[in-house]
Amino acid sequence: MTVGLRPVLHPGQAETLVHFCGRPRQPASLGSPRDRLENILFEGRIAGTVPFGSPLPAVCFSESDRNGIQALIEGAGFEPWGVVVSRSWVWEQGGGP
User: How far is Cα 82 from Cα 47, in angstroms, rounded to an integer?
Assistant: First the structure.
């Protein structure tokens, strides 16, 4: 069975997704956002982590548009280090909601 892409649901969503390398209250043991981005680029992959309440690792992306991303950086404590990919690429790699 082929799974199709979900249409953009509202104007605040973008065709590009952002994986932030730094987030609010991130443990220092995970390294700096710059270190994490360098590791992603060196390894050529984003390693998932197991979130609370799940047995499987996950990688998180923001679906926010440019204004939403700016708000996350300026007002919500996200560091301006990340990887931007297309929504369709994530689906092609087996990702989804």
Answer: 13
Compute the distance between CA of residue 95 and CA of residue 97 in angstroms, rounded to an integer. Answer: 7
pLDDT tens-digit series, residues 24-80:
877 777 789 999 999 999 999 998 888 889 899 989 999 999 999 999 999 999 999
Q: Give the rounded distance of the alpha carbon of 71 from its chain centre.
A: 15
Q: What letter represents residue 28's amino acid? A: A
Distances (CA, A) of 55 to 47, 50, 51, 62: 15, 7, 8, 22
Reduce the DSSP state of residue 11 to 3 states and report it.
coil
Give the three-class secondary structure for 50. coil
Total-model pTM:
0.80
Taking the C-alpha atoms of residue 58 and residue 56, their distance in angstroms, rounded to an integer, is: 7
